[in-house]
């Protein structure tokens, strides 16, 4: 293992430890998706009769939506952790060691990716327990998980950039509360696109949250549209790369401002 | 004098933060290898900014600096391998245990396997943290946390150790313990320590050489004793009931320095700091002179000169006052 890679792994491990040592925190991050899954699953059960969902069970339709939404809501807080590390002096302590600067940033990305993947898998399994059916099988699920991780990377990186830039919790809290619900409802998370008002559907077309849902849902269906999966997945990947690049730029400007 | 190259050499460092806050304004520091050097000054004087530049965290706007023979701007990586840093907030991971924190720190410097284990055990033992090694750091007391911070800075046996305000926020007992610990470190072979402090007492006690920093540059440098020795005789502090006006000051200064054995009278609000060859002997004449001038004395003391007097002499204001003024002026600004 090269030096930068092993250092990335140490940094990832360190962050995973935070998660592992605070089981209450891990449980809380899972309670929310469970609530969405079973509350909305039951509340909207009958909307499936409207048609356009591509399945006969609303839960089948809902699971990818909740997976992606949870990826968003857990990653958008990444900046809080970064902010805490800055204020506690941890980031500066690492910056005075020879640790690879890339490893510091990559540790964040890898950690968030692993947590998102784990969380996504658990939601898929919970859906399975609740009676959901995934005709796309393991390959389809893998696509959904990758899409969720990419989406999480986008918002995790943006949140980190914001944390380093504004250095105050209130801004992160404000922006997150402002973004979460509109982004979710302006997507196909709960409602089939054909049932959405035209203008909403058009907005949803530009919503990265929706890209992840379309890609994941299609891959998990009986008859995946791989063109759509690749198109949306590619767009997500490009966006993730851009967001990580932006957070690295912000990191450099943070270093200059120390 | 030592003929080896200095462990730390900074020349004419200038650093301005956004908003036109001048943190450093021509800072010069030279630290001889194997010595303890103290940067003394109030909050906002530029001590932390100096440390940030020397530890490769920040870049100066102009000026040069070498640490352990490496240029901080051209070879930051070599500098990072040679230094240990204990910052004001060292940020040990609160969720990880003391041992885990030390192991990670060691790994970042390339320590592995048995060598890493041995070094971590050694440090835990030395800083009496062995018992707490398996506990999460969030449960540590302030003193334990600080000892862990120092241990983290020493994990790779650095040539130069930076201690930024090592005892700020510690209770008196933990502070004394930390002083003893730093004193022991100083005795170790070859280790150079640069410490910053805003406690006069701390600089006096720990540092072989002290530089007094004010408004981004060094105003005077020397051993604590030589600095105090430059102030001949005793310090006589007199507190008046009311602060004299501008004219009153000139008048009083003339009257006091005209007395035999009294050399200097500095005014600072209601306080007068005078220096006398023999403070006790000069006191009656001094009080009589003040009475003749028509001012009422509230209190008077005689003391051996302290670094506080040195500070007043060179920075032109009393230490505690500079501390509050500067920290207010720079509240929220970069230090």
UniProtKB/TrEMBL annotation, chain A:
Regions annotated as coiled coil: none
**Natural source organism:** Streptomyces fuscichromogenes
UniProt GO MF annotations: ABC-type transporter activity
Membrane topology according to the record: Multi-pass membrane protein
The family database entries (Pfam families) matched by this protein are listed as: ABC2_membrane (PF01061)
Cell compartments where the protein resides: Cell membrane; Membrane
Does Cell division show up as a keyword for this record? no
Which controlled-vocabulary keywords does the entry list? Antibiotic resistance, Cell membrane, Membrane, Transmembrane, Transmembrane helix, Transport
- Example of a GO biological process term: response to antibiotic
**Name listed for the protein in its UniProt record:** Transport permease protein
Stretches that traverse the bilayer: 20-41, 61-83, 109-132, 138-159, 171-192, 226-248
| Homology family | Belongs to the ABC-2 integral membrane protein family.
Q: Where is each ABC transmembrane type-2 domain found?
A: 24-254
Automatic annotation (TrEMBL), chain B:
One GO biological-process annotation of the entry reads: doxorubicin transport
What name has this protein been given in UniProt?
A: ABC-type xenobiotic transporter
Question: By its UniProt entry, which PROSITE patterns does this protein fall under?
Answer: ABC_TRANSPORTER_1, ABC_TRANSPORTER_2
| Top enzyme class | translocase
Key words, A-Z: Antibiotic resistance, ATP-binding, Cell membrane, Membrane, Nucleotide-binding, Translocase, Transport
Among the GO molecular function terms of this UniProt record, one is: ATP binding
Give me the Gene Ontology terms describing cellular component: plasma membrane
Family, according to the entry, reads as follows: Belongs to the ABC transporter superfamily. Drug exporter-1 (DrugE1) (TC 3.A.1.105) family.
**Major localization class:** membrane
Write down the species.
Streptomyces fuscichromogenes
Stored InterPro entries: AAA+_ATPase, ABC_transporter-like_ATP-bd, ABC_transporter-like_CS, DrrA, DrrA1/2-like_C, P-loop_NTPase
The EC number of this protein is: 7.6.2.2
UniProt KW Cytoplasm keyword: no
Localization annotation: Cell membrane
How does the UniProt record describe the way this protein sits in the membrane? Answer: Peripheral membrane protein
Q: Which residue numbers delimit the ABC transporter domain?
A: 8-240
The organism that produces this protein has a lineage beginning with: Bacteria, Bacillati, Actinomycetota, Actinomycetes, Kitasatosporales
């Amino acid at each position: 293992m090269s030096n930068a890679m092993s250092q990335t792994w140490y940094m990832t491990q360190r962050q995973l430890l935070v998660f592992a040592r605070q089981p209450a925190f891990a449980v809380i991050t899972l309670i929310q998706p469970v609530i969405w899954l079973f509350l909305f699953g039951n509340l909207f059960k009958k909307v499936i009769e409207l048609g356009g969902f591509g399945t006969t069970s609303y839960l089948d339709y809902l699971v990818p939506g909740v997976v992606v939404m949870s990826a968003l809501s857990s990653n958008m807080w990444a900046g809080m952790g970064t902010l805490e590390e800055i204020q506690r002096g941890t980031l500066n302590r690492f910056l005075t060691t020879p640790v690879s600067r890339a490893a510091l940033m990559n540790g964040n990305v890898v950690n968030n990716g692993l947590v998102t993947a784990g969380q996504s898998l658990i939601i898929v399994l919970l859906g399975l327990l609740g009676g959901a059916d995934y005709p796309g099988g393991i390959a389809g699920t893998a696509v959904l998980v990758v899409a969720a991780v990419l989406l999480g990377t986008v918002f995790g990186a943006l949140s980190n950039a914001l944390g380093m830039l504004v250095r105050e919790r209130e801004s992160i809290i404000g922006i997150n509360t402002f973004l979460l619900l509109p982004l979710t409802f302006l997507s196909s998370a709960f409602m089939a696109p054909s049932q959405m008002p035209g203008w909403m559907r058009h907005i949803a077309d530009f919503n990265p949250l929706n890209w992840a849902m379309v890609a994941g849902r299609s891959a998990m269906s009986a008859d995946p549209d791989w063109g759509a999966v690749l198109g949306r997945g590619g767009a997500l990947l490009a966006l993730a790369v851009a967001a990580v690049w932006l957070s690295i730029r912000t990191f450099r400007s943070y270093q200059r401002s120390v | 004098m030592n003929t080896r190259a200095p462990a730390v050499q900074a020349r004419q460092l200038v650093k301005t933060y956004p908003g036109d806050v001048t943190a450093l304004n021509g800072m010069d520091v030279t630290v001889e290898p194997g010595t303890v050097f103290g940067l003394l000054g109030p909050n906002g004087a530029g001590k932390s900014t100096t440390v940030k530049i020397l530890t490769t965290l920040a870049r100066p706007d102009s000026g040069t600096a070498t640490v352990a023979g490496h240029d901080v701007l051209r070879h930051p990586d070599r500098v990072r391998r040679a230094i240990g840093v204990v910052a004001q907030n060292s940020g040990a991971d609160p969720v990880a245990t003391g041992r885990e924190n030390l192991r990670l720190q060691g790994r970042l410097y390339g320590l592995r396997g048995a060598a890493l284990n041995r070094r971590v055990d050694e440090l835990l033992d030395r800083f009496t943290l062995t018992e707490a090694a398996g506990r999460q750091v969030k449960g540590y007391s302030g003193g334990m946390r600080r000892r862990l911070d120092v241990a983290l800075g020493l994990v790779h046996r650095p040539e130069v150790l930076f201690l930024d305000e090592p005892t700020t926020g510690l209770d008196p007992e933990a502070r004394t313990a930390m002083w003893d610990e730093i004193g022991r470190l100083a005795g170790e072979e070859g280790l150079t320590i640069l410490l910053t402090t805003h406690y006069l007492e701390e600089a006096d006690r720990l540092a072989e050489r002290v530089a007094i920093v004010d408004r981004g540059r060094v105003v005077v440098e020397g051993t604590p004793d030589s600095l105090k020795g430059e102030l001949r005789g005793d310090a006589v502090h007199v507190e008046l009931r009311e602060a004299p006006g501008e004219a009153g000051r000139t008048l009083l200064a003339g009257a006091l320095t005209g007395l035999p054995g009294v050399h200097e009278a500095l005014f600072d609000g209601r306080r007068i700091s005078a220096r006398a060859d023999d403070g006790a002997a000069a006191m009656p004449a001094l009080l009589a002179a003040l009475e003749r001038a028509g001012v009422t004395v509230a209190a008077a003391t005689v003391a051996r000169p302290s670094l506080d007097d040195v500070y007043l002499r060179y920075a032109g204001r009393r230490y505690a006052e500079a501390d509050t003024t500067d920290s207010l002026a720079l509240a929220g600004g970069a230090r």
